[in-house]
Design goal:
Length: 310
């Protein structure tokens, strides 16, 4: 079998997309069956990138080639209330940035995170001071890719060996993501390095959906999906979304079609439904807080919310 494997073809882009969409469907089904205690927030679509990486076909971080929007990772949408970050792992404390934070960021450490560092107002200095000889701390920040910067295009999962630096602090840079890695000692043990490599592999970034063509008749289904999806993904209180209503528009008829096109290209934008949600309970407090705009597309595994517009 070892000899035969050399001659077998590797997975194609279509194989990777199929694996991603099947993972999404399985994750959605799992969430529907049982409640999950979330220590970190990460997009389900982002989680699929790790699975895709296991098949040997990584996704390029912030690819500058927009022609393949199905494999292009775009600027992070922390406003999805389930922004990018580290997937949960035993022995690791994680937190990811959401609305109201200065930057889209994520922290992971194999020691308890300090309360101040959980606010993501800057580098996790308090936690870094608490690192013992076996401690590891990741601080990842996400920004829009700047074509003028000569940053490398890397594949997910990111590799610890690509990090640069000396002593206890190392940096791994790529388009859209900058990861600062701090060890508790300048000479971490082999077991600590193995754990660090595994955790870095759990850093995930959302991607554009493999959107299917839609008709006007699909708009009502998209709106219903978002209203059912919202209670489990809204960062505020559950009572805030009670009685939520929505209006929806398809493709170029969507008021914010241009924003969707900038983020994921015109093909995805044309195949997406903009769903404008109104929360009546918050309307009396703030009009801006009571209005939420999401873009949803239909993929092979079903509907997927891929962006919250600002």
């Amino acid at each position: 079998m070892r000899s035969a494997g050399v001659h077998l073809p590797g997975p194609t882009d279509r194989d990777t997309i199929d694996a991603r969409e099947r993972f999404l469907a399985a994750a959605a089904s799992s969430r529907a069956r049982r409640p999950v205690r979330r220590r970190t927030v990460a997009l389900a679509s982002a989680a699929a990138l790790v699975v895709a990486g296991a098949f040997g076909v990584g996704f390029a971080v912030a690819s500058s080639k927009p022609a393949k929007t199905t494999t292009r990772i775009v600027h992070v949408k922390a406003s999805l209330n389930a922004g990018p970050g580290f997937l949960p792992a035993t022995g690791w404390d994680t937190v990811s940035g959401g609305t109201g934070t200065p930057v889209a960021a994520a922290i992971a450490a194999n020691v308890p995170l300090a309360a101040k560092d959980r606010q993501l107002t800057g580098p996790p200095l308090e936690t870094a001071r608490a690192l013992g000889p076996n401690g590891v701390l990741f601080y990842a920040t996400f920004t829009a890719a700047n074509p003028a910067q000569s940053l490398p295009q890397r594949l997910l999962p990111l590799q610890l060996d690509d990090a640069t630096g000396t002593g206890a602090t190392h940096t791994l840079r790529a388009r859209d993501v900058d990861v600062q890695i701090t060890f508790g000692t300048a000479q971490p043990s082999p077991s600590v390095l193995v754990a660090a490599r595994e955790e870095l592999g759990l850093l995930v970034v959302p991607s554009c959906p493999a959107a299917r063509p839609l008709t006007v008749g699909d708009v009502a289904a998209a709106k219903a999906y978002v209203l059912n999806w919202l209670p489990a993904h809204y960062s505020g209180g559950a009572s805030d979304v009670a009685g939520a209503t929505a209006a929806a528009a398809l493709g170029t008829s969507a008021p914010r079609h241009g924003q969707a096109a900038v983020d994921c290209g015109h093909v995805v934008a044309d195949r997406s439904v903009e769903v404008d949600v109104r929360l009546p309970k918050l309307a009396a407090v703030s009009a801006s807080l009571s209005e939420l705009t999401y873009f949803v597309a239909r993929t092979r595994s079903g509907w997927a919310v891929w962006m919250r517009a600002r």
